[in-house]
């Protein structure tokens, strides 16, 4: 697919004690994004459950199968608003395991579920890591790849998605505001997104969260970066709810050239990279 | 080696028509850095020849063997000032080929030469690409890895250096100011350095150049980034000569942990990355 796609990153306030409210806020945000012409909407990681679970019993109780309420709602939203909807959810697998997953719904259909492969901190207590590569799908809003939050810190992972043909990397995140940040500096989470967009020449739509939760604050660093690595929208100045919108000219992501003789893919020296 | 090392990135004005002047300016800058206590000094790419060669005859004429004037001077400087000196030079190889190389001298000894493996734009007309991985050496200023400019755009390359144990990545660069940069944005070249430092938890000392040369301007984006990815020094506000200094606590680069349960190396899933 070529042409211009309007993308939205939805930065949501999420409350681990209010799953119904989270689902409602997500639905409202998707409707707002659609009203603004968005064809691809990305919600945060664990958008409807929250993140800071007290114990394994709570995360398991909140997890849902693929035909559960959250993904049913997202399928409906993607049909009603005729858009591609990506968001993170706590997945109760058919194998009985709980995963930190992302779903992609397009026109009413659940097209893909990705299970986070790199787990952050206490997630390892709640989730089984995925063991599959990120999917890249041809959708009504271009070729979209999926990954989640900490996955973005592994350039090997973003490279795989790019080499598999993604024009857009859709990344639900929950970035805890853990690291001290020097005054005047952009959050390093956003910097890493910019670099990933740049070295792979693709768009990245990262949707972060906000709202303190059981003692944890969040970066609120949602951003839409272009293939040059510069933000088209975001990050917001404060970690508050935000709807970021940007028009993505997908042909820019198909062109991996960085000059008359250079190309970020063909300039690679893969045989020198092998372990 | 552990402890704190004072590092310098020297941003130089370089003139392709004045190799002797370039060599003199580099020597003066190294002396200034030493007077400020620097134990590791990084000069730009092609620090004494300049970059924008008219034709192959010129680049070949300017290239020097490893026992030529430039590296002899750098060996002497590293001995006289008791420091590790890294810089870029046009190398006339024993095989008769010309390479875009970086040298590391420590205490009067030429310890390593690295030949740039990823060539930018017209470099392919002047230089043969290297076919060896970047070296990582135990020096009097810590374990130092070498690469050059466009190499930094390949996360596979920076990862190799990190996995080989580098505490500091020393990177001579000549970043042409080619891309339009949105107002208020830091140059993407610097952003990529920050991300590389962060995902690998090492220090990066990148020394860029300035001074217009045959119609080309330069980013002047020299920077010293810490393992969190934030600049300790630079980038300078303008592309003018600058001496950046920072104290690197090398133990920070030995610690790949990013939290009580996370580690940027052991959290990798290498078997999932294989092509």
- Kindly report the average pLDDT value of chain A: 97
The topology string of helices and strands of chain A comes to: EHEHHEEEHEEHEHEEEEEHEEH
Major β-sheet profile of chain A: 7 strands, mixed
Name the shape of chain A in a single word: globular
Strand content of chain A: 25-35%
**What value does the Rg of chain A take, in angstroms?**
17 Å
Distance between the termini of chain A: 35 Å
Oligomeric state of the chains in view: homodimer
The number of helical elements of chain A comes to 8
Biggest interface and which pair forms it? A-B, 49 and 48 residues
**What's the β-strand tally of chain A?**
15
Helix content of chain A: 25-40%
Structural class of chain A: alpha/beta
Give the low-confidence spans of chain A: none
Please give a structural write-up:
The structure is a homodimer of 275-residue chains. Chain A is of the alpha/beta class. Helix content of chain A is 26%, strand content 28%. In chain A, helix 1 (19-35) packs parallel to helix 3 (69-80). The longest helix of chain A has 17 residues, at 19-35. Chain A is globular and about 55 Å long. The termini of chain A are far apart. At the A-B interface, helix 5, helix 6 and helix 8 of A face helix 5, helix 6 and helix 8 of B.
């Amino acid at each position: 697919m070529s042409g211009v796609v309007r993308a939205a990153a939805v930065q949501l306030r999420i409350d681990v004690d209010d799953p119904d409210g989270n689902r409602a806020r997500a639905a409202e945000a998707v409707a707002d994004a659609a009203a603004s012409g968005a064809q691809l909407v990305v919600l945060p990681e664990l958008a409807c459950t929250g993140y800071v679970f007290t114990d394994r019993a709570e995360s398991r109780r909140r997890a849902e199968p693929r035909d559960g309420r959250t993904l049913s709602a997202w399928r409906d939203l993607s049909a009603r608003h005729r858009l591609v909807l990506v968001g993170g959810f706590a997945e109760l697998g058919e194998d009985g395991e709980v995963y930190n997953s992302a779903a992609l719904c397009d026109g009413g259909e659940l097209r893909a579920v990705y299970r986070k492969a790199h787990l952050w901190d206490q997630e390892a207590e709640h989730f089984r890591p995925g063991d599959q590569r990120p999917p890249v799908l041809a959708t009504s809003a271009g070729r979209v790849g999926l990954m989640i939050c900490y996955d973005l810190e592994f350039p090997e992972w973003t490279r795989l998605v790019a080499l598999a043909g993604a024009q857009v990397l859709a990344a639900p995140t929950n970035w805890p505001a853990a690291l001290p940040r020097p005054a005047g500096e952009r959050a390093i989470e956003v910097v890493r997104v910019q670099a990933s967009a740049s070295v792979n020449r693709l768009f990245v739509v990262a949707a972060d969260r906000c709202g303190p939760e059981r003692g944890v604050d969040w970066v609120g660093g949602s951003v839409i970066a272009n293939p040059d690595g510069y933000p088209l929208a975001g990050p917001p100045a404060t970690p508050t709810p935000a709807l970021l919108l940007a028009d993505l000219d997908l042909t820019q992501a198909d062109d991996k050239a960085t000059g008359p003789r250079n190309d970020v893919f063909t300039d690679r020296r893969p045989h020198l990279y092998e372990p």
